[in-house]
C-alpha cells in the first residue's frame, strides 16, 4: 500500500517537522530508542547519529517500507522490524519513543498513548508529530469524493487519519504523570510540479483509499478529485501554496 518513491517526492517538506520535533527532545544518553512508523528509515539513521550510544529500532507495518529501510540497518546499532504499532511491544523499557507522521493512522489515541507511556523507562521521553489538518480543504475534498455513490460502499471501512485536539494530548499525558511540551505549527509549503497537492496526497492520505479501490476505480476517483483540488489550491508561477498544520508533543517522565 505504501510507496516509498512517491512519499520521498516532497522529502524536504516532510523532513522539517522531524527535525523540529527532535530539537525539543532532551535525552542525554538513552540506551534504547525506537522510531515508530519509521517509513524508509533514513530519518531513523538521524536518531542513531543524535544518540551514538543508543540501539535504535525502526518499526513499520509496511513490507515495502521495511524492505527499503532494512538496506540502512547497521549491525548492533540500527535495526528494523515489521510490526503493527497497534500491538507492538518492545522487549524491554525504552528511553526514547519517537514517531514522526505515523500515529495519526492508529485509532483510539487515549488508549494508544497510555500504552506507549507504559513502555517507557523511568526517565523516558515520548515524542511524536502528527498532521492536524483533517479539516483542511484537501481532506474535505477527499471525503466528498469518498462519499460519491460510486465509491462510498467500498470506502466505508477504509480508515482515515485522526488527531485529537492539542489540549487533549497535554491533559492526557500530564494525567499520566509526564511533563508535556505540546504545540502546533502551520507551514505554508509552496509545492512544485503539476497537480502538486494531488501528488502530495498520493504519498500519504490517499494510499489506503487507492489500495481499497483497485486500479480502474482509483483512476476514476482521482479524475473526480483532481479538478476539486485544482480549484482549492490554484497553481501560481512560484508553485502551489499548501497550508499544512502539524501537531507536536514531547512528554517526559521526570
Ligand atoms: C507518513 S509515513 C512517515 C515515515 C517516517 N516516520 C518519516 O517521517 O519519514 C507513515 C508511516 O507509518 C507507517 N504506519 C502506518 N500505520 C502503521 C501501523 N499501524 N503500524 C506500523 N506502522 C504504521 C506507514 O507504513 C508509513 O511508513
UniProtKB/TrEMBL annotation:
Keywords: Methyltransferase, Transferase. GO terms for biological process: methylation. The keyword Ion transport does not apply. One of its GO terms (molecular function) is trans-aconitate 2-methyltransferase activity. Residues 33-124 form the Methyltransferase domain. It holds the Pfam family Methyltransf_25. This is Trans-aconitate 2-methyltransferase. It comes from Hyalangium minutum. The lineage of its organism: Bacteria, Pseudomonadati, Myxococcota, Myxococcia, Myxococcales.
